[in-house]
Amino acid sequence: YREGPLLDAAFLSLLRNKLAQEVGRDADRPGYDGLIQLSQLLMAKYKAKSDVEQATVRILNSMFPQSLLRLFRAVVLPINKGKLAAILSARVTQATCQWLMGTCSISSVELSDGTSIPSGVLVEKCKYLEHSKCAGICIHTCKLPTQAFISKELGVPLLMEPNFADLSCQFKFGVEAPSPEDDPSVSTPCLEMCPTAIARKSSTPLCP
């Protein structure tokens, strides 16, 4: 993976700064590696993983103008029962987040009413998961807080389905996520490549 144009570098810098503010210090490493280090520090800061998720939601909230979120909910969300909002959310994600996730493409999603719309984003091999090597970081600093943020602040249901075997991830905008208790990905065991698990040589089956 390569960091792309200036806009990608700006997004990386913004997210790093917000993470550093939440953690209370900056990373020692430059660039994307520093972003991963900050995510590790965020995981280590809180004992309860729900606190990690809430911290990540705060970070996401701080990155978006509240007036823009209100405008989206007021103008876009009511159109065609939220389907346009789901499609636009997928398009924006695909266009702006490849620096974070790697190569991704728009995919079709089947909604609860039986219709299919192009409101999915398929991440071929998640850069964030590949570099962090940690299912816990994926779940608690990405999947669960992103689902919560998009659902609450945009009004668009979102289900994210990470595949820990091939490191792909399917975003499904317009699809309700199950509760964490009913989501099988939340109880994913530590990955073999996880540096935290390797370092502690623990027999604990669940990722921290």
From TrEMBL:
PANTHER family: BETA-CAROTENE ISOMERASE D27
Signal peptide residue numbers: none
All residue ranges annotated as the Beta-carotene isomerase D27-like C-terminal domain in the record: 99-181
Molecular functions per Gene Ontology: iron ion binding
Pfam families, sorted: D27-like_C (PF13225)
Name of the protein in question: Beta-carotene isomerase D27-like C-terminal domain-containing protein
